[in-house]
Structures are given as C-alpha cells and as structure tokens.
Amino acid sequence: MRVALFVTCVNDALYPRTGIAVVRLLERLGVEVDFPAAQSCCGQPQYNTGYRYETEPLVRRTAAAFEGYAYVVTPSGSCAAMIREHYPRIGRKAAAEGRGGELAEAAASLGPRVYELTEFLVDVLGVTDVGAYFPHTVTYHPSCHGLRGLGLGDRPRRLLAAVKGLELVELPGAEECCGFGGTFSVKNPDLSAAMGGDKAGSAAATGADFLCGADNSCLAHLDGILRRRGAPLRTLHLAEILAATEEEPPA
Amino acid sequence: MTGTFIGMPAFPAAAKEAVGNEVLRANLRRATHTIRDKRARAVAELADWDRLRAAGKAVKDHTLRHLDRYLLELEEAVTAAGGVVHWAADAEEANRIVTGLVLATGEREVVKVKSMATQEIGLNEALEAAGIAAYETDLAELIVQLGHDRPSHILVPAIHRNRAEIRDVFAAEMGAWGRPAPEGLGDDPRELAEAARLHLREKFLRAKVAVSGANFMVAETGTLVVFESEGNGRMCLTLPDTLISVVGIEKVVPTFRDLEIFLQTLPRSSTAERMNPYTSMWTGLGPSKGADGDGPSDFHLVLLDNGRTDTLADEVGRQALRCIRCSACLNVCPVYERAGGHAYGSVYPGPIGAILSPQLRGTGSEIDASLPYASTLCGACYEVCPVAIDIPEVLVHLRERVVQGGPVTREGIRVRIRPARGHAAERAAMRAARRLLDHPGALRAGERLLARARRLRPRRLPGPGRAWTDSRALPELPAEPFRDWWARERGERERPDRAQQDRGEPDRERPDRGEPDRGGRA
Ligand code: SF4
Fold first, then answer.
1. Which of A155, B154, B352, B471 sits at 20 to 30 Å (Cα–Cα) from B269?
2. Is residue A102 located within the same domain as residue A181?
3. What is the CATH number of the domain that holds A200?
C-alpha cells in the first residue's frame, strides 16, 4: 500500500522528528510512504483568523499536491479537520460568490482521502499494536480538533495502551482545551496562558514522564509553558512514541 | 506594537482583569464545573438526546424559514385571546411602547420576571428615565440590581458573586429599595433566600404591572411560555392587573406539540433538571379574560426585532437565532470560565454572546469586532448546544466579516462593509505568509534560514511575538526541516519531474550538521 504523507508546515519547519517518526512507523508496518514536495500549509491559521481569500490558493495547492493518492496521512488532527471540515465550506462560499465550483470540487475530492494518523492506523490498517516499545509513564491530551472535530474517540489511547513498557495515566480534565487556538494564543495571550497553565499543571500533577498529544501546535504551547516553569515533564507527539522500538528509541 | 499588529481588540483587555482576579476565577471555576458535570449526567440519561437535539434544530430552522407567516399567525391567536400585539423594530421603539403602556396605567412601578430581551434593550434604564421603578424579582437578578452591577451569565447573572458579597449587597442596599434586610444577616444561602423572599413579597403584593419575556411563543395557540425555578415568575405573571411581555421574534414555534422537545432539552441543558420547576403558560387573557380576577386583565405582547431580521438574512450567521438561552455553552466554555461574563461587553456573554452581539449590533465597535476572536474554536459549545448551533463555524464566519469585510444586512438593506480598523498589519502578514507558503522554493529557503538561526533562540521575542514569549518558551529549532531529511534519506524515490519543479532548485549542499536531527522537544 502506498500513501502520501502530509507532514504539515508546523512539523516540516519545527518538528521534523514527528514527520520522520511517521515515515518510520508506516514503513515498519509495510506501507510505502511518499512525500509530495509540492505540499505546504493547509491554510488553517489563515482561515481560522478570518482570511478565507488568503486560504484559497493553499486549498488549491494542497489538493493538487495529493492528487492521485488514495490515502493521505497526516500527524495533525487540526490539519485533517481543516481539510475535511473547512475545505468544503470554502468551496461552497466561493461557489455562492459566483466564482465557480473548482474549489468545491477540489475539496470534495481531497477530503475523503485524508486520514489523521491514528485513524489510518486503526481504521485502514486495522492495527492497534504497532510493535512499539516505550518504557515510560505517559499521559495523553486529546486536542480539540481531533477529539470533537474528527471524533478520534479512543483510537489514540488504544494505540498507546498497546505500546510495550508504556504506562498510561489519566489526564484529569483531558477534554478541556489547552488554550492554544492558533492566533488566539497571541490575540488573547492572558487567557491562552491561563488555560495552558491549568492544563500543564494537571498534566504535571499526574507524575507522568511525557505529555503526549497528536497535534504539535498544542504541544508547542504546552511545552513552552512547562519549560518556562522549569517543569520536568516533556511533551512528545504520539507518532514518536509509536515509532519507538527497543532498537530505535526516540531521539 | 502588539496593539496595532494584531488589532489588539477590546475583549482581551477586558478579560485580562478577570484572569488576574483569583477570587473571581475560583468562583467561576467552581460554579461552571459543577453545573457542567451535572448537565452531562442529566443529558446522558436520555437515550434519544441526539434525536431531541436534531428535532429542536429542525423545528427552529423551519420556523425561522417561515418566520413571517408564524408571527402573523401568532398575532392573530394572541389577539383572539384578548391580548394586544405590538411590533418593535428596535430597542428604542420597544422601550417607547412599554414605557407608554406603563404610564397609561397610572402606575409608577413594575415587577419584572427575568428576561434577556428586556436587558438587551435596556428597558430598566428607559423606565427609570420615565420615572418608573422596575424591580427585578429573580434572586440573582435582584443581587445584580441591588449591587448596581451588570449580569455576567444568562441564567445565573450573579455567578461572579460569592455568598459573602451577596450578604453585603443585601445588608447595604435592600433598605433603599423597600423592605430592608433583617438585622445581623448572615451569609447562609437559606438566610439570604429568606431575606430576598421577604423583600420581594412586598413588591409582588403591591405591584399592578408586570414585565416579562418568554422562552417560547406558540403561533398556533398564541400561548406564551416562561421557564423559571424560583416561583417569582409565576407571581409576576398572575398577580398584577397588567402584564407586558417583550419577546424576540425568534422565540416563536409553530405548534403546542413542539414544546415537548424543548420541555425536555431546556431544563436538562440549563440547570441539569429533568423537569423544569415552574413552567408558566398563558394564552392572552385566558378563558376567564380576567373577569374573575384570575390573572391579568390586560395583556400586551411586544414583538422585538432589534437586529434579528438582519441576522436572519445571513446564511451562516442565522443559526444563532435558534438559541434557546440555556447557557450550556457558557458553562462548558474554558474561555468564559476564565474571562467571566463582563468581558463580553453585552448581556449575552460566552460563546453565544460572541456570535450574537456582533450580529445584533454589528462589528463596528472595538468590542464587537473582538468578540469573534474570544474563542479557541475548541468546539465544546457546539457539542453541548441543545439546538446544535455550530458556534465555531459562525465565529470563523464573523472573523471573515471583521478582517475581510463583505456583505451584511443592516436595517433590511444589503450593504458591503469594509474590514474593521486595526487589522492592516495582520492582513499584510497573512498575505506575505500565504505567498511564502504557496511557493515551496521560498518556503524551503525560509525554513533553512530558521534552522540556521537555531542557536540564537531568544528568551523573549519583540513585537507581536512577545504575546507568545511572555508566558512560553520558544520551541527548539531543528537542524533541518523535514523536507531536507526526506530529500536526503528517501529523496531518490521521488519522481524527478515533480521534485525538480516543486523544490525549485536541485540543491544538495547544506551546512554540515553532524547528527541528523536533534530538533523538536524531547
Ligand atoms: S447557543 Fe446553544 S448552548 Fe448556548 S445558550 Fe443558546 S441554546 Fe444554549
């Protein structure tokens, strides 16, 4: 099976380790991975801030970059939700503004082929035990777009629970937003920091070694707060845990 | 700089104070979490919750689609039952009508049932200007009124106050409004409720005019419905001679039977109760027409538009008119919990306020332009809303209106509004980012530049970046972007035609980085 990796711009520029982990993980599971280099950003920051027109070229670019792939896998719940939920809206609005059906068609074609990593593993490959080894205590924060937007449900936790050596501890108030919210983090910095502080506090109180998530932008926010506080808890993307083996622990 | 670059709006500034107020945050946290958890349990009891929610949405959507027809049907039914219907295009007209009706009775005071519509139009202030005293009879509303305060929650307007504060307000202020608080009043909830009961009873027995809102109006029968849990509403609706109800036009439902949905969803969503404690329904003057002294002998219904028809004209934004004011979205909202209700600058706080105020009032003012941004788009509000209002969708839609401008309806006329002030620099930055992101060659160069700057990682950024680094460390920058790793490790598998064209140049020389990748977080 061949899939295209949509690494996302945040991971490309800031968290290449997550992208590398996805490649290693999928290859280990017998999947052939392509990285269409024409990809860039899905346009989520622009769209969520209200710049729909600035988003349109990125919709076109993303759709074109992944043309012909039956599966597009991404290690970001919010970017997957952007493409599946919001691209069709952008297409509808463009059509309603009398600018034709091109964007709507691009959205309709790409959306159903996009899978968030845990969806792809559990639903398409049908695996929960990916043969990973990670001898640490981990608590999991389900980011909002994955949890409520995509309805990932317990997929991430099932994958984590099957990792050898891993002890999963409950994160109290897990379903509450971490306060990142894209440009919310700089437009409403006090609220964002207060929300992040509470989330980081309850994560640290679990005593876990790692706070795991499936969206690096939320983790960047939480990690920034934890580091600034000097807390020993570290954040780690789910893909990096799933990619880890006894021979190849995460970097 | 921060201010101009991101159009630093009014909501963040207003919220800053609340965020820093430990007492307020503790009050709100306790109150919202308690009701949040209770609501979740009450809703989980119903196996058909999803269907009830869908039905509520469908009934409301259908009614809004044919609002003109149902309002006329309602007017006919209310009139036939002995009521008088008035139409108010805006707050000013509604206030004028109500004030005139009260003055015509010769009375100079009214008792009030808790009502969002009358708060929205500032009725109490208008009545006061005409020499009429309006007494709030809902306990929390009374606390707000006596404290010269503003409501901070749809259902629990005094949610920001704790018991000790309420005691102080009662002891200091009740005397000026009527029966004073008992000597040596303590802050036990029962004592406080008893003080309010005694104070209010005097008003109920004396008042000749009552003003209410309504949760629902039934077009078919002309019946109005008020949900409340203290019994004060029942007193106001039955004791006085004249009853004046001010109700938003979106509160109509077609048939009596439609109420079966909302009788189930509203109490569970708002107070986590299986059944609402006091549900009062009245149809005009009723069969007795007040002749035997049972109920008011004079009933007026003031139908309020005040921006609703304009809101209805917007295909995405109109769903906000489905709202049944249960306040579940406030109770579940992590932003409301920390910002408090006052920061929203409107009688409608929280997520629903963030989509309603900028539509009813427009996005012209600083606060209204900032409200669509008062959310992380986490979606918790949408999940709990009993009429399935996709609040995040409307928020993003209104953000577009703020930064891009576009068509809106104002007083029935379709106009194009210009983008709100203060977003020019942000717009330029978004455009520049898009250009970069739409040209992978340039993007890749930028990413490499970033990688080279990794040793410079500062503790604090200047300008707009400060908003990030004030409370968070910057991420460690990786040695190379993912696409460089890919080109080196897996690149030979790429189709050359595509790779060539997309990467811009077949660049292979890169600074020696020693180990492959030490970036990221762990
Ligand atoms: S928007 Fe929905 S959840 Fe919020 S108050 Fe209205 S009906 Fe309730």
1. A155
2. no
3. 3.40.50
In this structure, are A59 and A90 located in the same domain? yes
Q: What is the pLDDT of residues B48-91, one digit of tens each?
A: 999 999 999 999 999 999 999 999 999 999 999 999 999 999 99
Distance from CA of A158 to the nearest CA of B (A): 22
Residues with CB under 6 A from ligand 1: B 269, 323-329, 352, 384-387, 389
Give the residue among A177, A172, A179, A180 at the shortest CA–CA distance from A204.
A172
Give me the DSSP letters along A176-215: S--S-TTTHHHHSHHHHHHHHHHHHHHHHHTT-SEEEES-
Determine, yes or no, domain membership for A131.
no
Question: ipTM > 0.90?
Answer: yes
Residue A233 belongs to domain spanning = 137-243
**Rounded Cα gap, residues A104 and A89, in angstroms:** 8
- pLDDT for res B85: 98
Domain count, chain A: 2
Which bin fits B179, alpha (ψ -120 to 50), beta or left (φ > 0)? beta
Distance (Å) from CA A38 to ligand 1 centroid: 42
Contacts of residue B400 in chain A, CB cutoff 8 Å?
50-52
B246 alpha carbon to ligand 1 midpoint, in Å? 20
- A113 lies in the same domain as A20: yes
Residue A44 pLDDT more than 80? Answer: yes
Size (chain A), residues: 251
- The correct answer on CATH 1.10.1060.10 for the domain covering B309-417 is yes
- Give the residues across from A32 on adjacent strands: A2
Interchain pair B377, A182: CB under 8 A: yes
Q: Where are the domains of chain B?
A: 46-306, 309-417, 424-499
Do A224 and A149 sit in the same domain of this protein? Answer: yes
Kindly state whether residue A132 falls inside one of the protein's structural domains.
no
B273 neighbors B42 (Cβ within 8 angstroms): yes
Distance from CA of A123 to the nearest CA of B (A): 24
CATH superfamily of B46-306: NagB/RpiA/CoA transferase-like (3.40.50.10420)
Span B331-376, pLDDT tens digits: 999 999 999 999 999 999 999 999 999 999 999 889 999 999 999 9
> Rounded to whole angstroms, how far apart are CA atoms A114 and A124?
11
* CA–CA distances in Å: residue A231 to residues A200, A205, A228: 9, 10, 8
- Model confidence at B426, pLDDT cuts 50, 70, 90, reads confident
